[in-house]
Amino acid sequence: MSSRATASARANIALVKYWGKRDRRLNLPAVGSLSMTLSALTTTTSVSFEEGLPDDEFTLNDTPVVIDNGCRMRRVLDEVRSQAGFSKRARVLSRNDFATAAGLASSASGFAALALAAARAAGLDTKLTTLAHLARLGSGSAPRSLLGGIVALEAGESADGSDCLPVQLTPEGSWEIELLVVITGSGSKEVGSAEGMELSRTTSPYYSAWLREAARDLARGRRAVAARDFGALGRVTEASCFRMHAVALAATPALLYWNGVTVEVIRKVQALRRLGLEAYSTVDAGPHVKVLVCSRDSARLAQELGAVDGVLEVLTARPGPGAWEESE
Ligand code: ADP
Ligand code: DP6
Question: Does the beta carbon of 284 sit less than 6 angstroms from any atom of ligand 2?
Answer without folding.
Answer: yes
